[in-house]
Amino acid sequence: MSNTAAAFGDTLDGRVLADIYRMHGRSVHKYLRTLTNGDAGLAEDLLQETFLRAWRTPRLAHRPEAARPWLVTVARNLVIDRVRHRNRRPQEAGDAALAHLPAARCEISRVVDSITLADAMAKLTPNRREVVVHMYLHGRSPDEVSAVLGIPVGTVKSRVHSALRALRSHLAAPDLCLAA
């Protein structure tokens, strides 16, 4: 037994493996290209693994011309194993998902938005500003604002409507983002 065979256990002789590759390599590679949807690199990796397993199977030396069914079965099993392994692992998220994540807002942006909103609120009439403060800063309903201010509910709703319309026009600058 040679040193190579002793180091690796029972393996095929290099000449026999080369003969098997010459007889069946092209057809097994073509089969693997079909199974891998034309992925040449993957097909070559799987072909190499297939012939590595053939090298470790000395019984193929008895009839090298009949090794093709064994090689095709090994190749198919390698493809199946690779698909199973990939399906066991969680899907990797690429950078495409990052485009849908909201950007974190910085403190400077909040300060600018607060100043801009304060300026717009200052432009409202005192009656409109008072109703907006009660409804949106204190979280009161129109009925509650009506009771606190002693004015009819219809007047509260009317003032809020006109105040919001005025605020929208003051805040209509395209570079402002007050949504957050």
Automatic annotation (TrEMBL):
Listed InterPro entries: RNA_pol_sigma-70-like, RNA_pol_sigma-70_dom, RNA_pol_sigma70_ECF_CS, RNA_pol_sigma70_r2, RNA_pol_sigma70_r4_t2, RNA_pol_sigma_r2, RNA_pol_sigma_r3/r4-like, WH-like_DNA-bd_sf
Keywords: DNA-binding, Sigma factor, Transcription, Transcription regulation
Listed GO MF terms: DNA binding; sigma factor activity
Domain RNA polymerase sigma-70 region: 20-89
Signal peptide (UniProt feature, chain positions): none
Gene Ontology process terms (BP): DNA-templated transcription initiation; response to stress
Record carries keyword Transcription: yes
PROSITE patterns in the record: SIGMA70_ECF (PS01063)
Record domain RNA polymerase sigma factor 70 region 4 type: where: 117-167
Pfam families: Sigma70_r2, Sigma70_r4_2
UniProt family annotation: Belongs to the sigma-70 factor family. ECF subfamily.
Protein name: RNA polymerase sigma factor
Organism for this UniProt entry: Lentzea aerocolonigenes (Lechevalieria aerocolonigenes)
